[in-house]
Amino acid sequence: MATFLYKLGRLAFRRRHFVALIWVALLTLAGVGAASAPPAGNSSFSIPGTEAQKAFDLLEQRFPGASADGATARVVFKAPAGEKMTDAGNKATVEKTVDELADGSEVASVADPYTGDAVSKDGAIAYASVKYDVSGMELEESTKDALEDAAQQARDAGLTVEIGGDALQAVPETGATEVIGIAVAAVVLVITFGSLVAAGLPLLTALIGVGIGVSSIAALASALELGSTTSILAMMIGLAVGIDYALFIVSRYRAELAEGREREEAAGRAVGTAGSAVVFAGLTVVIALVGLAVVNIPMLTKMGIAAAGTVAIAVLIALTMIPALLGYAGRRVKPAGAKGRLLGRSRKGEPKPDQPVGQPKANLGTRWASFVVRRPLAVLLLGVIGLGAAAVPATSLELGLPDDGSQPTSTTQRRAYDLLSEGFGPGFNGPLMVVVDAKGSDAPKDAFTDVEQQIKGLDGVVAVAPPAPNKGGDTATITVVPDSKPSSVQTEDLVHAIRDAGGDIEARTGAETLVTGSTAMNIDVSQKLNDALVPYLVLVVGLAFLLLIVVFRSILVPLKAALGFLLSVMAALGAVVAVFQWGWLSGLMGVEETGPVMSMMPIFMVGVVFGLAMDYEVFLVTRMREAYVHGEKPNQAVVTGFKHGARVVTAAAVIMMAVFAGFIGSSESMVKMIGFGLAIAVFFDAFVVRMAIVPAVLALLGKKAWWLPKWLDRALPNVDVEGEGLRTAAERGTGPDEDRELVRT
Hints:
By secondary structure, the protein is of the alpha+beta class.
């Protein structure tokens, strides 16, 4: 692989005009496709294999034309202090608002509060339910404007009016902090390279890659039903890995220049060595993201595939466009030791005034690694105990999906949620829909009544609406209002209690009882993700173990890498629980409402953090193995690996943290949580696991770290991530005109 990539790097360097033209053309094509594509419609949220989804599908069959997936809105009215909604003036205002809402072109129905028992017992609060023919993402702007205008007119009449539901669903915004993250990345690159030109190359290629990826997602969003969150997550991951991958190759290019090689040869060697690690690291990220499909949640699968596609583009750009741009940059990208003019450092080979001649000062990575190999046990224990302490909150992890109650208090959806809780109880925001399929029952009406009475006798139930049968009389829906909020454990227990009671009902009447609705769907999603977490974790860790055996030709090094990855994930989940569930530092993070952690968070973090952890493992440990293979003692090989790789890995980690942290400013709670979780996971993995625990373990193991049974060594393919084959060929004097023979060897 190293030889092929070596040739590819030299080719891209020589044919830089052609390579640049291809990528600019792809960016233009993707941009045109995104601009001309129809707007994204509703991203379907189906959960195959769950009871809630089964009930939802049954409703579409037995209640045709009911627009089960249509948008809904609850216009909530509150009377001024000392007044009631039943007062003549307030009632007239509400009825006028209902009439205006009913005139909308996309409105299926509007329920009058005064005929639908939608006035609170104290008369202070009432609500009108609006049902639309299309989903929230498909509503015309004119329809949303009409909804807001009708509410504003009622406000002008003296009422407090807020709007809940998904009719006003908006595309999440990431805010200015995303730009700040990129700015931080730019500063880190300038400090690392000491050159504006060299620092600009990773940023430029990452932005082009993300532009192609996100534009492609936008172009396909309508056809593939991709939600707005999909493109944001693809942007988040694509930016981070795109900058990092380019950083590794540019750093190796400058190191090759420092060895005295010509620029074209240096570009080829940089792609052949660092590029090999980029390919492997990118492959692990892609596999982990695509592997999310095993969970069998279509939305999560689409998110994973879209993000994986953006990562694949980042790898291809790093391997081809970076050497092409290095060709354009020429002498403006200097060798590794010649960056002193910008940051005031001495050039390579020029000792500082207080430095003895002939004894170059050891860099920070070398000094840190030397300390770790002298005190490996203390460093190991401190790192493991620290991560273990950070992981403690994860033992209290509660999973759920966000609803209007998790929105910022500045939004009308959140204020409507609070008003409904005040007037009708917290459970009113998450009613359960019980579907009774009595097609196999001899007395359907009796079965409906039996279910109604059974539910009324359960704990935690505030109200049970009378059964509403379909035209055929074989299916009915029963609305159940819990006495607890939708995301609470009590509501989850009630759902399970209704389902448990359904078994006895079916035995008596032959009617099947199913629980659905948004609250039940969220509970089923959380359970499905929770059940899939361990199998997926085994799959990912097992994959890491096998791939790293091939790369490092060792048993204990991959085992250490996999265990370190588990420590990173658990510590990061603990931090997420502490901030988003317990409320620690919530004000600093802009978290206005604490609650359960998003159901997809653990499994998504496992997939993404696995790929990122393998990035740092490969780039750091391959340098150690390279030194060990060339005859250095195990401890000295660890120090050598840090000497060459610690600075670059540190810069890459800081950049990735900055990019992920930039998304904490998003208005979407899911994006905010993922941005924080990935940023803190990168911190734990790069600076605690890879920079402390890994060298400590390798120092304790010594030569045993690189042991591999002979039979396994013969059986494993030689992927040559370190570029050993390329180096050997070069030492034999093989030139660029002998590439074909080089491939055969």
